[in-house]
Specification:
Helices cover 54% and strands 12% of the residues. By secondary structure, the chain is an alpha+beta fold.
Length: 307
Amino acid sequence: MAQYAIARVAKLKTTNAIKAVSNHNHRHGKTENANENEANKILLGSTNALNDWQQRIDADGIQIRNKNTVRALEVLLTVSPSIGKAMLKNEKALNTWIDDEMRFLKKEYGSKNVVNAILHLDETTPHIHAVVVPEFENKLNAKHFTGGKKAMADFQTRHFENFSPMLKKPLSRGKKFSKAKHESMAELYNKKNGPVNFQQLTEKAIFFETENATLRSENETLKTRNKELLSKNIELADRERMAADPTLKSAEQIESARIKEMAEKANAEAVKKLSRMEKAKARATPVSQIQGSRMAAPKPAAPSFSR
């Protein structure tokens, strides 16, 4: 039976998605089917992938083009279970595999862009989770790295060709453009152990959390912009006042003129409102006339019921 080298890439479209991945990868919380007695190993970065990502963004001022820009890529690297179990018993093979995978990541995405990587040894098969900043020409550009089907097929080929001879021998690249369906980790767990609660890591949970954070951020941006526009409007109005009245020289005089103008405007509005109220009152029918008409109205005849 063929044994495969496996590489999967997922797009992380928001910083909340990066945070959720970081929490899962670094076991900030209970993880189903993970052996708590086995220690995982950080290969690169810290226990907070989001912080590592942000530091890379800030270091070179990488541009995030818009709110729909993919923020990061998560790369999962592993092998078929039987090979994985064998590597756990052979330290040299395991270390060679780790070195090969880290070399591949840095060559594929650039050393500076691979910001976080962790080796998981607490599950059945050893695997590496890496968080990558998809930077190209100082902009976030995930499409440059993921492309279409052919681009990802070439990616899989490069991944396999990267391995040292001792690993190439037992491993296969896998069939190109295979129609085999990719199963998520949740689906694999469900097959093995029955339904598992993956609520915290579902795409829907991440989506709503992300949308909420995005709206909050946009709201704060609008508030800031509103303040800037208000300040600009006041500045322009002050210039107009000074142009209209050359006697206005000091900030106190301008402020006094502004307050006077606002008071006059408020007074004018109050006069208009009072006028509208007076007109509405004049059009209204007096209550006494309404009551009199009701009293003068004839009483309806009592209904008669024939036998």
